[in-house]
């Protein structure tokens, strides 16, 4: 069987995500933002006060990757963590005034990139494309673990069992992030993603628009 990458949905989607991220980065870099933090901001602009666990589940991001992303956002003055009123062990992620002030400009940048990418498609074609993309995402989210090239079942750690971030865990995450930065990139993490303007390994921290936009 011959694998034709230019006819592969996965290959083309990955290539497209890299191009989206590159163009988005060029537009939001002057705002002090990066493609890696953009999806988290989209969720918090829509609903503030989410927990780390909720962000992991909504964005299909690994727990460790999300912890590192939130640590960078806290360092850059985009978020603060506050204790939950009902459970002091749980921390809520809230936007700073700076992050709130960037919403309009950042969303405008994302919409401009979408307009460029979808420029040759009319409205019905755009709607069909978005619908197919959403169906593909749903299919992969519902699919069981695949089979590796060796024939052994692949395994993954389910995110649904992740624990809420406690104050002590947050401190540990911050310490681990500083250690990683000093020692070099940690396996599985991608602290240089913003500089390379490429999406993280999951392909989800790339680009999005307003939740109601569905596309351009």
Number of helices: 9
The biggest beta sheet is recorded as: 2 strands, antiparallel
Q: Please state the structural category.
A: mainly alpha
* Percent strand: under 5%
Silhouette: globular
Please give the share of residues in helix.
40-55%
Nearest-integer average pLDDT:
78
N- and C-termini, Cα separation: 37 Å
Number of strands: 2
Rg calculated over all Cα atoms: 18 Å
Q: Largest beta sheet: what is the strand line-up?
A: 1-2
Order of helices and strands: HHHHEEHHHHH
Low-pLDDT parts are 159-172, 174-216
Describe the model.
With 216 residues, the protein is mostly helical. The chain has helices at 9-28, 38-46, 52-59, 63-75, 97-101, 103-117, 123-142, 167-183, 193-196; strands spanning 79-83, 91-95. Strands 1-2 form a two-stranded antiparallel ribbon. Helix 1 (9-28) crosses helix 6 (103-117), helix 3 crosses helix 4 and helix 4 (63-75) packs across helix 8. The chain is globular, with a radius of gyration of 18 Å. The relative contact order is 0.20. The model is unreliable at 159-172 and 174-216 (pLDDT under 50).
Compile the SSE list and pairings:
Elements: H1 9-28, H2 38-46, H3 52-59, H4 63-75, E1 79-83, E2 91-95, H5 97-101, H6 103-117, H7 123-142, H8 167-183, H9 193-196
Antiparallel strand pairs: 1-2
Helix pairs in contact: 1-6, 3-4, 4-8
Compose a concise summary of this entry.
This protein is mainly alpha-helical and 216 residues long. The protein contains nine helices and two strands. Helix content is 51%, strand content 5%.
């Amino acid at each position: 069987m011959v694998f034709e990458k230019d006819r592969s949905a996965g290959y083309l989607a990955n290539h497209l995500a890299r191009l989206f991220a590159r163009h988005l980065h060029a537009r939001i870099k002057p705002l002090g933002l990066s493609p890696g933090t953009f999806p988290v901001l989209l969720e918090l602009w829509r609903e503030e006060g989410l927990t780390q666990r909720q962000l992991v589940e909504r964005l299909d991001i690994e727990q460790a990757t999300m912890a590192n992303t939130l640590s960078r956002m806290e360092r850059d003055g985009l978020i603060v963590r506050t204790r939950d009123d009902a459970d002091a062990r749980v921390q809520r992620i809230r936007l700073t005034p700076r992050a709130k002030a960037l919403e309009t400009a950042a969303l405008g940048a994302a919409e401009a990139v979408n307009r460029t990418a979808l420029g040759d498609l009319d409205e019905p074609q755009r709607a069909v494309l978005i619908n197919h993309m959403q169906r593909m995402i749903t299919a992969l989210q519902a699919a069981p673990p695949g089979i590796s090239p060796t024939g052994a079942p692949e395994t993954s750690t389910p995110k649904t069992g992740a624990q809420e971030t406690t104050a002590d865990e947050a401190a540990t995450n911050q310490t681990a992030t500083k250690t990683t930065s000093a020692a070099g990139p940690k396996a599985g993490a991608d602290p240089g993603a913003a500089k390379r303007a490429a999406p993280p390994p999951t392909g989800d921290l790339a680009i999005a628009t307003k939740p109601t936009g569905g596309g351009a």
